[in-house]
User: Fold Putative alpha helix chain yaiN from Cupriavidus basilensis.
Amino acid sequence: MSHTIREKQKLLNRVRRIRGQIDAIERALEQEHGCVDVLQQITSCRGAMNGLLAVVLEDHIRTHLVEAEPAHGESEGDAREQLIEVVHSYFK
Assistant:
């Protein structure tokens, strides 16, 4: 995945934050925190994972996907941008 090299430090920082969130979930469970607290930490971690996935997937789309011939009246970037928009909406 050569395109990840450009953003290597940013991606690693995201992974480290996610690791910290997972560690916090583990501590909350060990310390028998309430369900609501644990659920909030889990959903925060899930959001961070989805954000990481979206960034890597978007870069993959921009770097590696070959666009189909644009439909009449569409600019060349429309198909790729529409796919990226769909992916972003999935992760919201």
